[in-house]
Amino acid sequence: MSRKSGGMLRDNAMPHQSAAISAGRQRIDRWLWHARIVRTRDAAASLAGAGYVRINGVKIDAPGRFVRAGDVITVALDRSVRVLRVTGFAERRGSRWRRSLAI
């Protein structure tokens, strides 16, 4: 529930994170962090903002771009390029042994 300006609560409001995941999409910086491609979400935002990330072959310059299941993500890291396909989303960041968000 969220508050309106008068202090009243609305029943139909959903948290931003759950609304985006239920819509079948997630921010690229959050997805890179959840998939454990980078250690921090700030590092994921910096990567996306600097132009080192492509979604379906299109270079992005903002960490707020959304990805959907089936999108192909290309990430230029230190000395390598990683190509990943989005297979799902997570509400929370899990352990490194359960990395099943990308192929």
Task: Give a written overview of the molecule.
By secondary structure, this protein is of the alpha+beta class. About 20% of the residues lie in helices and about 25% in strands. The chain has one domain (about 15-100): Structural Genomics Hypothetical 15.5 Kd Protein In mrcA-pckA Intergenic Region, Chain A, CATH 3.10.290. The strands form 3 sheets. Strands 5-4-7-8 form a 4-stranded antiparallel beta sheet. A two-stranded antiparallel ribbon has the order 1-2. A hairpin with a 4-residue loop joins β7 and β8. The model is unreliable at about 10-15 (pLDDT under 50).
* Poorly predicted parts: 9-15
Major sheet, described briefly?
A: 4 strands, antiparallel
Q: Could you estimate the helical fraction of the residues in percent?
A: 10-25%
Proportion of residues in extended strands: 15-25%
Q: Which whole number gives the mean pLDDT?
A: 81
Report the CATH C-level class.
Alpha Beta
Relevant CATH superfamily: RNA-binding S4 domain
Helix count from the secondary structure assignment: 3
Question: How is the CATH topology named?
Answer: Structural Genomics Hypothetical 15.5 Kd Protein In mrcA-pckA Intergenic Region, Chain A
Q: Report the radius of gyration as a whole number of Å.
A: 15 Å
Structural class: alpha+beta
Shape: globular
Give me the strand/helix succession.
Answer: EEHEHHEEEEE
N→C terminal distance: 36 Å
Counting structural domains, the number is: 1
**Strand ordering within the main sheet:** 5-4-7-8
Query: CATH architecture, please?
Result: Roll
**How many distinct beta strands?**
8
